[in-house]
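Question thread 4412

I'm putting together a teaching handout and wanted feedback from people who do this every day. The idea is simple: show students a protein as raw sequence, then show them the structure tokens that encode its fold, then repeat with a second protein so they can compare. Below is the first pair exactly as I plan to print it.
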Amino acid sequence: MSASVDRFAKDYRDALQDYLRDLGEAHLNRAYEMGRDALVAGCGILEVAAAHQMAVYHVLAIEEAAARADAFQAASRFLAECLSPFEMSHRGTREAALALQRLNETLENEAKRIAHALHNEAGQLLASVHIALAELAATLPVPAREKLGEITQLLKDSEDALRDLSHELRPMVLEHLGLLPALRFLAEKAARRNHLSISVSGNNHARMPASIESAVYRAAQEAVNNVVKHARARSVRIQLRCGTRWVSCIVHDDGVGLAKSVRREESTGLGLIGIRERLGNLGGSFRIVSRAHRRTTLLLVVPMET
């Protein structure tokens, strides 16, 4: 054990011994304060439990057999009081996670609304402009008609950009077909736009909860974006594996890898923070394996039962 844990164990033993002498309320208050200090110092519940076990063994060894049952009950009350700050912290963390999960769901719904607006309303408006330009072109001389053709092409490029943005905000293929087809659609778009070779494999055929599909898709999307921005890779592999209890996704590239300083910067970036929060709310996690001038792999795991 570390010095701080050793010190906590000794203080806990002394405090428990004081409490068992007179069962005073002040000693229970001391137990609560010790638990709070241990929580702030980074001690875990298992370390507190180990300190309690050693203290009970030391203190109750000198008790008479007839008094041990009452002493055990009193020691249990002392431990419960010491652990109450951990319980309150756990409850607060759980409530914060639920609030963050509701926020993510709200953001996804808002992204879906905006995507539909871009796809439907903006699409209809652009279609009307195309019709108006076509009618105008018939009335113009050839030089002006050629200029109008350039404007029409710019309008088509804008339409394509809006369509891509709509799919990035909320891909319809994810909503209607599921995670694996959505990842393939993401790979096809990213490969064409960035001149990459991106392959997708997986064993997923059944639909999963929308929260899991969305979190895994967003994580893979952010990983691909990072590859495009930083890796200077030629190829990317996305592997999706779904079991009865877990779903995992691996994004592997053959790029230059990340130096330690870049990995630290990336780990605090908004994209990866978002991934960590989304997965954490579902009980999942991710890690990045990379070395300077070598390949990079992102591995994420999410439990199927959340």
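The second pair follows. I'd like the answer to focus on this one:
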Amino acid sequence: MSEPRLNFVQCLDGRGLHRMAYWEWGDPADRRVLVCAHGLSRQGRDFDTLAQAFSGQRRVVCPDVVGRGRSDWLADPMGYAIPAYVADMVTLLARLDAESVDWVGTSMGGLIGLGLASLSGSPLRSLVLNDVGPVIEPVSLQRIGSYLGQPAHWKTVDEAADALWAISQGFGPHTRAQWLALTRPQLKPEGDGFKPHYDPAIAVPFRLITPELAKAGEAALWQSYDRVACRTLLLRGAESDLLSAATAQAMTQRGPKPRLVEFAGVGHAPMLIQPEQVAAVREFVLDAPSHEGTKELGSGPSFLDGP
């Protein structure tokens, strides 16, 4: 597997400037850009497999959202918020000088894409929301809050992989080789071992979310969603505890009215590594003919009619 190029762009925050890292695949002169944005405690190398699948057809850019991966950590943890991430991505898109922009966002990365797509004059040509929508189920917030920002130290990559797998069952089945490949970029060297790659302070604003704030945020997200005008695809793990089946169905009836594809045997969130997951994204982004309505993808090669 070839390696991506690592670049940085300076972005503005409330205390000054910070550097945001981004991983770039493909021809740097290609103005057809696919941006892939990761989840809350992840980083841009999650998309290595997906990026390889677009080889020769798109320049693929995978940012490490600030506070994660190779990006800087913020002096003020309250800067770890979706509006600030959207602003960072506007800066990134200006740097990329793209002619067309497709966006794939997993969980938090999907909310960033939703924020961008809802802006007047948005540059997004298409949007893939991976297991996220305007309504975030409370049970998922409790699950994520149980580990986010907690101190951890692992002596070996294998030990880290086992610990991360224990909190990542929703990602669905992976081979050991696939999981180790997903684990290594999640680690930072520390002493005689490793620690998580992200700033523990990303948990500070997360833990301030009350039921009342969540409800207000839900209303604002629906308003943003209804402003999205670009082509949209909605992916869902059929066992997701974050994006409910009811919310996903409601999303198909309003706003951009996306096609919904569900993956059997997966919760939150599909990692876009398995062949059927990669194929769903490629078909949509590359404008291949698609079927309308809800579909469910299992371990086999065929589309199965959903409910």
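Top answer:
Good format. For the second protein you could add a caption like this: The chain has a mean pLDDT of 92. Residues 136 and 225 are 14 Å apart (CA to CA).
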